[in-house]
Design goal:
Blueprint (H helix, E strand, L loop, with lengths): L2 E4 L9 H10 L5 E6 L11 H10 L4 E6 L7 H7 L3 E5 L6 H10 L3 E6 L17 E5 L14 H14 L5 E5 L7 H7 L3 E4 L1 H4 L4 H10 L8
Parallel strand pairs: 1-8, 2-3, 3-4, 4-5, 5-6, 6-7, 7-8
Helix pairs in contact: 2-3
The structure holds D-xylitol-5-phosphate and zinc ion.
Length: 222
């Protein structure tokens, strides 16, 4: 069964406590938290204090997506703040194998995020060492962008590799995901759907989560 990870980037920050309670009570599985540094991506979002605050109220795992340069410097801080899953960008990690090992040593699930233009084959030599691939289906930095359809082929390619090697790595798809495209994304092989604008931008966010969660996919298409 696939997982749903609402991205708090699109929530109402003035009411963040209520937004956290809303996700707690919904059918969603994880909290997706987007950390931006204004260097790896051309935007700033939030950091450690916000994550610690969310952790105090969250009853579901915190999935922290680090869109920052030199993420290795802050891994232990994010873990202490309450991150259960930590994803670093392949494009920001010259020593990716070491960085993912550091995440595992901290007791978190290790994820690697990958930009739309980066070939998935670059992940193949660390697949044994990670728990999750965060496949970017928009250029990271902003919520509410349009899904890049070329990404579907990348999901399929990655799913085929994971299946063939009999690994348990989850594929998370992040950016422009909503009710209009969730089914094809799941059919391509996604295990986790991140959605920000599609959930928090809707007047009936609980129903959107429920609908995203209840999509049935019998078989993958690769
Ligand atoms: C983009 C972030 C996403 C973003 C998704 O850089 O990584 O997690 O919040 O937002 P939507 O679903 O609105 O595209
Ligand atoms: Zn994200």
């Amino acid at each position: 069964m696939h997982l749903i990870a609402p991205s708090l980037l699109s929530c109402d920050f003035l009411r963040i406590g209520e937004e956290v309670q809303f996700v707690n009570q919904s059918k969603a599985d994880w909290f997706h938290l987007d950390v931006m540094d204004g260097r790896f991506v051309p935007n700033l979002s939030f950091g450690l204090p916000v994550i610690s605050a969310v952790k105090r109220y969250a009853t579901k795992p915190l999935d922290v997506h680090l869109m920052i340069v030199e993420p290795e410097k802050y891994l232990s801080d994010f873990r202490k703040a309450g991150a259960d899953i930590i994803s670093v960008h392949i494009e920001a990690c010259p020593h990716l194998h070491r960085t993912v090992q550091q995440i595992k040593e901290l007791g978190a699930m290790a994820g690697v995020a990958i930009n739309p233009h980066t070939p998935v084959s670059q992940l193949f030599d660390v697949l044994e060492n990670i728990d999750l691939v965060c496949m970017m289906s928009v250029n990271p930095g902003f919520g509410g962008q349009k899904f890049i359809y070329r990404t579907l082929h990348k999901i399929q390619e990655l799913k085929a590799e994971i299946t063939q090697r009999n690994l348990q790595v989850k594929i998370e798809v992040d950016g422009g995901v909503g009710l209009q495209n969730a089914e094809v994304i799941l059919k391509a092989g996604a295990d986790v759907l991140v959605a920000g604008n599609a959930i928090f931008g809707d007047k009936q966010p609980a129903e959107v989560i429920e609908k995203l969660k209840s999509i049935q996919v019998d078989k993958f298409e690769f």
